[in-house]
């Protein structure tokens, strides 16, 4: 395995220090009692570099600054690399990390890559590197109300899961560096970029593999008056997606990105043959009840995780993701990453199938997406 320094300090490098890269920097600062430090960053965008350097300086962390990821890898400074660059750059960066002589553990932001073909190539290449851990940043699993709902469902309280409904009603996509996130070619499409989180949760709750997907969606409200280099954005802003799993359970996503007038951004409902559980974010409430006890027997819990030292942009989930990944790194191969490359691949495959279903106006099988897009 990639070894950490003799003093036990785990040294991190961050590739891509835009909004999410700087969020990782802050989370790692709040983990400093765990003997971690960020020692290097790589980003070709000078304003992002400067913001990260200023932030690190306020933490008392001097940073080596590189314009490219290859120089950061060649420096030999890092034990762990966090990849939080734009989606369309993940494939090249991951392949360069995997093929580098020095082993680096990797936490890569979602989506793993923008296409199924690229995800599969990364999965295949990483198999050869038993000295590296790669975790995918599907951190919604760690949001305290979602984690509590997972615990309830996996504990059998709702019985055999039959239906998973996830509603995300939120604000439009934020402005990113050079507006890279306004085009499907860069993001993989909204249902890959944004919704791989929810497809990952559906698979986790269902405890099964996806078989086929049907979706309806469009760009109806957002970004229509925006033009970049003569092109109007093509990312959809609302969709319904149905996912069928191989154990007969179903998932349904209701996405709306012009719904700022919502009390909760995410509402998750999991119904089994004997009961139902729900999670609400950011209210951080979990409800669950059984068919036998009926409405009067529904329990309401406030979900908290006292380990969280920084809530950040994702309600403490990024902090918990880092804590979990760090424990896998320190376990030196004894512990698998909590969210592995296969999870990353399947979450992208469902998103790609959903995008394709909208284009074709018909069901798309996961097999079709996996086969059609092989390298």
UniProtKB/TrEMBL annotation:
Gene3D superfamilies: Dihydrodipicolinate Reductase, domain 2, NAD(P)-binding Rossmann-like Domain
GO MF annotation, one: nucleotide binding
Domain Gfo/Idh/MocA-like oxidoreductase N-terminal: 11-137
Domain Gfo/Idh/MocA-like oxidoreductase C-terminal: 151-365
Listed InterPro entries: Gfo-Idh-MocA_inositol_DH, Gfo/Idh/MocA-like_OxRdtase_C, Gfo/Idh/MocA-like_OxRdtase_N, NAD(P)-bd_dom_sf
PANTHER family associated with the record: INOSITOL 2-DEHYDROGENASE, PTHR43593
Protein name per Swiss-Prot or TrEMBL: Inositol 2-dehydrogenase
Lineage: Eukaryota, Viridiplantae, Streptophyta, Embryophyta, Tracheophyta
